[in-house]
Design a protein that fits this description.
Oligomer: single chain
Strand content: 25-35%
Largest sheet: 11 strands, mixed
Number of helices: 7
Order of helices and strands: EEHHEEEEEEEEHEHEHHEHEEEEEE
Radius of gyration: 22 Å
Shape: globular
């Protein structure tokens, strides 16, 4: 066995998916903006809008149950139930809480119904809040107090429209704030699946951070002295630049005009980094459908890293492929033409 130096690049969302409609108002919140600034890699996707049903209050107000419903373009309906145990939610400060559903914004606010509030607490600040996307995100990440949603995967499958990066700035300023050229083209050309909805409510923005993990395998003849070969630490900007090219080349998002046909060869990626191979995986329960195939992420609930069900973009020398750990299985969601 020869020694090798491999980079395994894990992609995680820094914030739940956000509709294009909500993007600019969202970054007016400085705390949210600071979170989004951790991202330099982003995707734009499309999926029919999801609606909350009327909530049912249970257990003397400590639990609420409601449905999520989505109508696909072919007219078929996806519907599932979720239950929120208010006392188990993070930030729950009281023994009692009340849930208020704002139908006008399709947003749930979980508020405290206690008469007394500690001096350092803002009585107007909600204990928690849920858009449909944040509820899905919290569910697949195992947030306490949220159960149900057995058809979650059907809600978290998106059409991949665009892959982008911001090497000099960040996703907040590049994609969420102001005018992003590809985002505007998407909004100008796409049609809403939901008859009465706006296309901006069906276009979603995904802000990712990339965690490069470097692994070295040793041959029996190797000695644990001297230079092990390969980079001791990967340049984050090079990883981001390479990831953009990998996703565009292997999946082919419709609104990316530059296609990087020579990938993995390039001056600003990982091709010349001295690696034996490298890969990209999503540590999130989301699936993207693109021109060249379907790519599924899958989060291990214990480690927070991609599970053994997650697809991978794999690069080895000049060879590139989409690795499918479930090839041949009936529930396979990962493929490439």
């Amino acid at each position: 066995m020869d020694s090798s130096h491999i980079a395994w690049n894990c992609l995680r969302l820094v914030y739940p998916p956000v509709s294009s409609l909500d993007a600019e108002p969202l970054v007016a919140d400085k705390q949210v903006e600071a979170v989004l600034e951790r991202s330099k890699f982003y995707l734009i996707g499309k999926r029919p809008q999801i609606f909350f049903g009327e909530p049912i209050v249970k257990n003397k107000g400590s639990n609420i149950a409601l449905t999520l419903q989505m109508t696909r373009e072919d007219g078929s309906v996806v519907e599932d139930c979720v239950e929120i145990a208010l006392k188990k939610l993070p930030k729950a400060r009281r023994h009692h809480a009340a849930a208020c559903l704002s139908m006008s914004t399709n947003k749930i606010l979980v508020i405290d119904d206690a008469e007394e509030v500690d001096d350092e607490e803002d009585p107007t600040e909600p204990l928690n809040w849920f858009t449909t996307e944040k509820l899905l995100y919290d569910r697949w990440r195992g947030t306490p107090g949220i159960s149900g949603l057995h058809r979650l995967r059907e809600f978290t499958t998106y059409e991949l429209l665009y892959v982008g990066i911001s090497k000099k700035n960040n996703t907040s300023k590049r994609l969420f704030s102001g005018s992003h050229e590809a985002r505007q083209r998407v909004l100008n050309n796409e049609f809403a699946a939901y008859g009465g909805g706006r296309i901006s409510e069906e276009i979603y923005l995904f802000a990712f951070d990339i965690e490069p993990l470097s692994v070295r395998t040793l041959a029996l003849t190797d000695q644990l002295t001297g230079d092990p070969g390969g980079p001791a630490e990967l340049d984050k900007i090079a990883v981001v630049a390479d990831a953009e090219k990998a996703f565009i080349d292997l999946l082919d998002a419709e609104y990316n005009r530059v296609k990087y046909k020579n990938y993995p060869v390039g001056e600003d990626g990982l091709y010349a980094a001295g690696l034996s191979g490298y890969s990209y995986q999503f540590a999130e329960d989301i699936t993207f459908v693109a021109k060249k195939g379907t790519f599924r992420g899958d989060r291990d609930p214990l480690s927070g890293y991609p599970s053994n069900r997650a697809c991978a973009l794999v690069i080895h020398g000049d060879l590139t492929t989409v690795f499918d750990p479930l090839a041949g299985h009936e529930d396979d969601e990962c493929s490439a033409d």
